[in-house]
Amino acid sequence: MTDEPVVSARGLALRFGARELFAGLDLELRRGELVAVLGPNGAGKTSLVRILLGLVAPSAGHVTIGGHDPSRNRARVGYVPQQRAFDRDLPLRGRDLVRLGLDGHRWGLGRLSSGPAAQVDAALASVGASAYADTPVGVLSGGEQQRLRVAQALVCNPRLLLVDEPLLSLDLAHQRIVVGLLDAHRRATGTPVLFVTHDVNPVLPFVDRVLYLAGGTWAIGTVDEVMTSETLSRLYGTDVDVLRVRGRIVVVGVPDDEHHH
Amino acid sequence: MFWELLQQHFVHSALLAGAVVSVVAGAIGVFVVARGLSFAVHAISELGFTGAAGALVVGIDPVAGLVAGSLAVGAVLGVLSLRGSERDSSIGAVLAFGLGLGVLFLSLYQGYATEATNLLFGSIVGVSGAQVRSLAIVAALVLAALAALYRPLLFASVDPEVAEARGVPVRTLSVAVFLLLALATAEAVQVVGVLLVLTLVITPAAAAQRLTARPGIAVLLSIAIALVSTEGGILLSLEKDWPTSFFITAISFAAYVGARLYGTTTTPSASA
């Protein structure tokens, strides 16, 4: 495999009216990397994901995925959203949800050929969801649904995984399982993962680098480089303390106190 | 009496029209229920009534007014793509005024009052051969579109966020589904009337998704329930001189109640 970065962003800026979320953002994602995107609500984490999905055009700069424009790559980008409730009587099984990730974007009725079905089975097995593959998604727990989400993202054999707060509203055990699945996949296949989260701790053991967005500016580097009182104080423009407590990172003094538990 | 009526040409037309409309209404119903658009169906049908009443006043075919009214509302709802309570309250506001207009048009209309009654409560046994043909053409159009859009439409209906991320044109599909819904509703109005459209567009789909967790099977079951309701209703009304629409709603409601009872006696995985 070449060492070309899978994601290459240069000088990215995003503004909504007078409000600048970030500017001059350079980001490269190489094969096998897991990069966490951190920052308070409204800092532009999700907007960055939407730029990489080709759904939002950056105000400046440009980005390529595998050398191509993001909008041409969506069929090969796996996306895991935050958990949300499905109606209990929605006629959709776990395997249907995963199948949509494979060919739900294609026109027509779709054929019941065995090739896609085998791919779906393999994806379900890889996340340990085979046991409830035929259960309606609406009656599954949040943790089970997120496992299916991971399978749904992996089934298209993606060259990039974008995950946006996939752990929200999951208990600790399921957080570990979901992070573990994503980590195992990038180690096995080299597919890089951009992991948006408001809390670095669940991904702390796995994360290679951190992109921190706050106060209209950003910092990127290893956890030890970015998660420091100095760096975060600079980003927030106020005194912020970063403490290490029992292997966890605790950030104290963030304005509005809108993140970090 | 029953067997004599069954030989009649107008009964054949009614059965044929009922079948055509049921297939369309049952098929689109699954997407309507998954998207939570029941109230929008109500609005589209009632404003279709306004269109039809307006057509009567100016002396053109009320069916043309019905289709135009339904499509106009469907297009507006689709383009606005409102969500949640904002959608419901704005639909309610527009719906109420639209019905008020319909009442005005009816009072201005000097013709037979039966025309209005037919619009409101259905007139399946009065359907003409030409009407059956146009019903079939529109039905074929809607079904072809649903088949072509099936996978992305299902994706966008049940999982819009990921669908958008995967490149599904979610907003365009939203407009498309409202337009198809408007056509399907205008079809169903001609069978069961404005006030009872939900019995073909919502009830069968709601029953079907209690019976299966497989999206494709849900569509087929919904069509089957709509078909049995309509054809059964028409046949029963030959036997007993009660309104056809009553029998249709009774059968589809019975299917819904039965499906709910079935759904509560089986475990989710067993119903899959």
Polypeptide structure, described:
The complex is a heterodimer of chains A (261) and B (272). With 261 residues, chain A is of the alpha/beta class. Helices cover 28% and strands 25% of the residues of chain A. Chain A folds into two domains: 1-73 and 159-261, P-loop containing nucleotide triphosphate hydrolases (Rossmann fold, 3-Layer(aba) Sandwich), CATH 3.40.50; 87-157, no CATH class. Chain A has seven helices and eleven strands. In chain A, strand 8 (209-214) and strand 9 (217-221) form a beta hairpin. In chain A, helix 3 packs across helix 4 (142-154). The termini of chain B are far apart. Chain B contains 13 helices and no strands. The longest helix of chain B has 30 residues, at 129-158. Chain A binds chain B through residues 53-55, 71, 74-75, 77, 79, 81, 84, 86-87, 89-93, 96-97, 100-101, 103-110, 132, 134-136, 139, 149, 152, 162, and chain B through 30, 34, 147-152, 154-155, 158-159, 161-168, 208-210, 212-215, 217-218, 263, 268-269, 271-272.
Care to give the gist of this entry?
The complex is a heterodimer of chains A (261) and B (272). By secondary structure, chain A is α/β, with parallel strands linked by helices.
Task: Classify the secondary structure makeup of chain B into a structural class.
Answer: mainly alpha
Helix content of chain B: over 70%
Which CATH class of the largest domain in chain A is shown?
A: Alpha Beta
How do the strands of the widest beta sheet of chain A line up side by side? 5-6-7-3-8-9
CATH domain topology of chain B: ABC transporter involved in vitamin B12 uptake, BtuC
The average pLDDT of chain B is 89
What's the number of extended β-strand segments of chain B? 0
The low-confidence runs of chain B, each spanning 5 or more residues with pLDDT under 50, are none
Strand content of chain A: 25-35%
The major pleated sheet of chain B works out as: none
Gap from first CA to last CA of chain A: 40 Å
Could you tell me how far the N terminus lies from the C terminus of chain B, measured between alpha carbons in angstroms?
Answer: 44 Å
Strand content of chain B: under 5%
Oligomer: heterodimer
| Radius of gyration of chain B (Å) | 18 Å
The biggest sheet of chain A, with number of strands, parallel, antiparallel or mixed sense and barrel status, is: 6 strands, mixed
Indicate the percent of residues in helices of chain A: 25-40%
CATH superfamily of the largest domain in chain A: P-loop containing nucleotide triphosphate hydrolases
Please state the overall shape of chain A, judged from the principal axes of the Cα atoms: globular
Q: How many domains of chain B?
A: 1
